[in-house]
Design a protein that fits this description.
Layout: E1 9-14, H1 27-30, H2 34-40, E2 45-48, H3 66-75, H4 82-92, H5 94-97, H6 99-111, E3 115-120, H7 130-142, E4 147-154, H8 164-178, E5 184-192, H9 205-215, E6 222-223, H10 226-236, E7 248-252, E8 255-256, E9 265-268, H11 277-284, E10 301-306, E11 318-320, H12 329-333, E12 340-345, H13 346-355, E13 369-374, H14 389-402, E14 407-412, H15 414-419, H16 424-447, E15 451-455, E16 493-498, H17 519-526
Parallel strand pairs: 1-14, 1-15, 3-4, 3-9, 4-5, 6-7, 9-10, 10-11, 12-13, 12-14
Antiparallel strand pairs: 2-16, 5-7, 7-8, 15-16
Helix pairs in contact: 7-8, 14-16
Length: 541
């Protein structure tokens, strides 16, 4: 129902805070969070889908993630996303018929050179899928490529915390088969995704530099094989989860097996953009690149699985076209001259700007948009579970007090970033910290005569234990301790309307098929507009 609230409207995204009845291992329920519990008990509380097909992923077995979640939140629509687009391009053969694939393979054949692949080696399907890599390796072999190298980033964040051996073994088997008939396909380097290569939003370029030295120059601690590297590195740091493992280089008697050379080609097989952009820039950019010293940069042709940033644009070459997200919430509100404010800390800043606006890094219109980034700490977030929630709240309170903005949006990273560490105690603290900041923020919204919509982009800290699918009980390590879960969840997410002055008319529709893509229409209705027909319908009765 179209209605116009008199004060500001604030969308609060509690990143990684899902909803499930189970209390065990659920930081949301275990935390001292009196305000959040009070809000959940209100009549304008419901839960929404935030995973699988409801956010454009191939199947309902796919957990949600920030990219697809914020795309859905910010566009009010469901688009086929990277994972689905790549599956389709491989299945239909369109990827291999495309000009970029041809250029890459032809160049390798012409130069008698090596085809390199780097990316996240798992079936997490958030940034990548190992099946995509395997399909490309097989195709390259069938087209005559004789030398390929895989630079394998270990996951432990979108899949079980210590599962790297599963994917490494699978990869070694595939490479061994492909290496028959005179081919030479091998793993050349690797490391934990939170240690090398996969930084995002320029939070820590040193990660990318470490990745560059391992993958490109073959510089790093050497091991005879990736599985031996994994075993040794785990022994050296008991309890370490895969995402935090240091980098490694594979070497034989002649030295590192896969430094990149002039004439080679390189494919990043991640489909998701945020953590692929910095490395893409390191490959593509000329002397203007100043983030770290790349040493002698080999003359390689580089391609991404997808275009990771449509505005830079980056990379120059990519295999699959991006989803073309149009008619976003911001594009709708700009012509209506609605002043907007968007804020988060570095780790989620691009989520609430770039992903929110349909993968656009520039503003739609400077005159109506203010963005604010609070620099994130550079630590493992179980060491600082409060993160920058207080500083973000300070800035939001000022923005509300200024009276300038009619629509504000914020992402609090705590539930997700602390959830990914697998540390339940820290996640409980994260939720308690969030509750205190929500108390401050909602008081300011009340003072400004406003309304808040509180939601999440997907679950994470709502399930901090790995559960046995059959018994539903927590899985145990060999020493009897509970196995921590570091990945997102498949759970629904909260949707709460905070309306202290009773401005909002009507209740919430009760439709279990509604997801987070239904929030945009709700937002514009509360701002006094009719939502575009192509958006998912509003949640207001
Ligand atoms: O950290 C990340 O890159 C992903 C998990 O792979 O999390 P999110 O989607 O919440 O950003
Ligand atoms: Mn998220
Ligand atoms: Mn996450």
């Amino acid at each position: 129902m179209k209605q116009q609230i008199p004060g500001p409207l604030v969308t609060i995204v509690l990143d990684g805070v899902g909803e499930i009845d189970r209390t065990e291992g659920n930081a949301v329920k275990l935390a001292h969070a009196p305000l959040y519990n009070h809000l959940r008990a209100s009549s304008r509380f419901t839960t929404l889908l935030a995973h699988g097909k409801a956010v454009g992923l191939p199947s309902d077995a796919d957990m949600g993630n920030s990219e697809v979640g914020h795309n859905a939140l910010g566009s009010g629509q469901i688009y086929d996303q990277g994972a689905k687009l790549v599956n389709d391009a491989i299945e239909s053969g369109a990827m291999f018929a495309g000009s970029v694939w041809r250029q890459l393979v032809d160049r390798v054949l012409r130069n008698d050179a090596t085809l390199h692949f780097f990316g996240l080696l798992s079936d997490g399907n958030v940034h990548s899928h190992i099946d995509h890599l395997i399909a490309m390796l097989r195709r390259a072999a069938s087209e005559g490529v004789t030398k390929a190298r895989v630079h394998a980033l270990l996951d432990g964040r979108d899949v079980g915390g210590t599962t790297a051996q599963i994917y490494l073994k699978q990869m070694e088997e595939v490479l061994a088969v492909l290496s028959e008939q005179g081919r030479d396909f091998r793993i050349a380097s690797g490391g934990g995704r939170m240690t090398i290569t996969m930084d995002r939003y320029e939070a820590d370029w040193a990660m990318v530099e470490r990745g560059w030295n391992h993958h490109v120059h073959g510089k790093g601690r050497t091991f005879p094989s990736a599985l031996e590297a994994l075993e040794t590195l785990r022994e050296e740091t008991p309890g370490i989860i895969d995402q935090n493992l240091p980098g490694f280089v594979i070497a034989d008697e002649q030295g590192p097996v896969g430094p990149m050379r002039d004439g080679d080609c390189v494919i990043c097989f991640n489909f998701r953009g945020d953590r692929a952009i910095e490395m893409s820039r390191a490959f593509d950019e000329g002397d203007s690149f100043t983030y770290f010293d790349r040493g002698t940069k080999p003359d390689v042709l580089y391609a991404g699985m997808m275009q990771y940033d449509g505005d830079l644009p980056s990379p120059d070459h990519y295999l699959v076209g991006p989803p073309n997200i149009t008619d976003t919430l911001t594009e709708f509100l700009v012509p209506e001259k609605v002043q907007m404010f968007a804020i988060s800390e570095t780790q989620k800043y691009g989520h609430v700007t770039y992903f929110w606006n349909g993968n656009r890094s520039g503003k739609v219109d400077e005159r109506y948009e203010t963005y604010m980034e609070i620099p994130s700490d550079r630590v493992s977030f179980d060491q600082r579970p409060w993160m920058k929630a207080a500083e973000i709240t300070d800035a939001l309170i000022s923005a509300l007090a200024s009276g300038t903005y009619r629509y504000l949006r914020v992402n609090y990273a705590n539930g997700d970033m602390v959830g990914h560490t697998g540390n339940l105690d820290a996640a409980i603290t994260a939720m308690a910290c969030l509750d205190i900041q929500l108390q401050r923020l909602l008081a300011a919204i009340k003072k400004a005569n406003g309304v808040a919509l509180i939601t999440a982009d997907h679950g994470n800290c709502d399930e901090m234990f790995e559960l046995d699918k059959k018994t539903g009980q927590p899985k145990r390590e060999t020493d009897g301790s509970i196995k921590p879960k570091t990945s997102h969840t498949l759970n629904r997410v909260p949707f709460i309307v905070y309306d202290p002055h009773g401005h909002v008319k009507g209740g919430l529709k009760d439709d279990p098929s509604f997801g987070i893509a239904n929030i945009a229409a709700t937002t514009v209705e509360l701002l006094g507009f009719e939502a575009p027909k192509r958006w998912c319908p509003s949640l207001l009765v």
